Amino acid sequence: MRPFELLEPGTLREALAALEPVDARPMSGGTAIMLMMKAGVLNPARLVSLRRLGLEGIQVSNSTLCIGAMTSLRALEKSAVVAQGWPVITRTLRTLSNVRVRNVATLGGHLAHGDPHMDLPPLLSALGATVTIAGPKGERTSPVEALYSGYLETTLKKGELITNVEIPALGKKRAAYLKCTTRSADDWPALGVAVVMDGDKPTIVVSAATDKPIRLASPEAAESLHIESDLHGSAAYKKQLLKVYLKRAIDEARNARY
Q: What pLDDT shows up at residue 184?
């Protein structure tokens, strides 16, 4: 692994300034970036740790769930506030990787990584979540759904950081997230399906079988969806999985009891 400089700024302004060099990369929990560096996929000369920026925390404001980007996935999983108002997130986190990873990985890093096999991007997209993004040109907001442009590709610009995530109240809506793993339950999924039911109208977002989370206009639209082959299954196999898991996810969301 290439030698690198590690900086730990104490303010957001300092962090943004430290990210100005072309070969600088932000690091939140570090669970993904360190693996990519060891594999030689990334070779930054500088890592900028975000752990001292005070971006942790979970609270509800005007019925909206507000989560700091540096909040660990484990803290999110164990939150009574999340379990009460957004139980589908709690259920999803229980089989997201393993507890050792969830103790370290952060929500912001999870969303910024851009891997279509991640569990929360499709679910948060279906829930209508938005992110606050800070960068050299100021602050902007974006739907989680608009963060992704392709496999390991995001719409985050150079030097931009996710600082906060907001998830609207479920109200009378019902939600479910199902995934199919080809090995252990906490393995990378071959397919992920998130469904939010508003009455009889479903919002459907598919991932893992696609190069980014994809919203379906209707259940029937799954037939024409472009499916990607990978180590977790062929396109034909995943196409069949989608037929089965889409129906299961819709049924589970309809029958969800909070």
A: 82
Q: What is the pLDDT of residue 56?
A: 97
Q: pTM surpassing 0.90?
A: yes
- Residue 114's nearest CA partner among 137, 159, 74, 146 is 146
Where in the chain are the domains? 5-47, 58-167, 174-254
Q: 248: part of which helix (H) or strand (E)?
A: helix 235-254
CB 134 within 8 A of CB 108: no
Specify the CATH number of the domain 174-254: 3.30.390.50
* Pick from 176, 163, 167: nearest CA to 256: 176
Residues above pLDDT 90, as percent of the chain: 91
> Which CATH number applies to 58-167: 3.30.1050.10, 3.40.50.2300, 3.30.465.10, 3.90.1150.10?
3.30.465.10
107: Cβ–Cβ under 8 A, 6 or more apart, which residues? 67, 68, 69, 70, 71, 72, 73, 76, 120, 165
Residue 258 has pLDDT above 80, yes or no: no
- Whether the per-residue pLDDT at 217 is higher than 90: the answer is yes
